[in-house]
Amino acid sequence: MNDRYPVVVSGVTKGMGRALALRFAELGHPVSGCGRSADAVGELRDRLGPGHVVEAVDVTDAAAVARWSRTTVAEIGVPRLVVANAGAIHAQRPVWEVDPAVFSDIMRVSVEGVHTMAHAFLPLMLESGGSFVAVSSGWGRTPREFLAAYSAAKFAVEGYVGAVAKEVPAHVKVAAVAPDSAVDTEMLATCLPDEHHAYPGPQEWARAAVDYLLHRLPQEPSGGGLVFPAP
User: Fold this and answer.
1) pTM above 0.85, yes or no
2) Residue 2 falls within a domain, yes or no?
3) Among candidates 187, 160, 198, which has minimal Cα distance to 176?
4) Domains held by the chain: number
5) 68-100, pLDDT tens digit by residue?
6) Catalytic: 5?
7) Is the separation of the CB atoms in 172 and 125 below 8 Å?
8) Which domain holds residue 81?
9) Catalytic hit among 5, 150, 160, 199
């Protein structure tokens, strides 16, 4: 069996998603990724080169995600690993200072985006098997004050994954995996502006994360509460 199978990652235009896409491609996996910034999508498409798919897709747009899934299958095949990584956050502030539109955007990207990914890609794996991973957070297990919206979104992801893991056949794994420590990304700088540099960067993190996803995740139980190892 070919161990260089297709991998799908959402939110690949920056941070952890971009680092994951580059690392999977470096190891020889055909990658299909999406992001909202057309310019950043074009840059990554050029960086990855032929044999990969990078599309400008908003994960809150179910029809667009469905089209992307069809393009993925047509160009690189049915994925055996799907990573729902796209997320959103805001600067720390009391919940009564969080505009409802900001709260709604965080929930839509971080929760609805996981569902659009599952709705489009899980059916592809029901016969062939594979793993569907939602990137979670420690703040989705222990809530963080002044980040109530983000904590709520990741708690929802954990619950969603726990339910879906009971719905799929045994040869399909559905898991919520959180980084063991924070990762120094633009999102982290938004909410921890004074300490984000104390954490590993996305490229360093992705080496350990990809190794985990490829080699250790298949032995893990389905459901929430899983952790990417520290780099």
Assistant:
1) yes
2) no
3) 160
4) 1
5) 999 999 999 999 999 999 999 999 999 999 999
6) no
7) yes
8) 7-228
9) 150
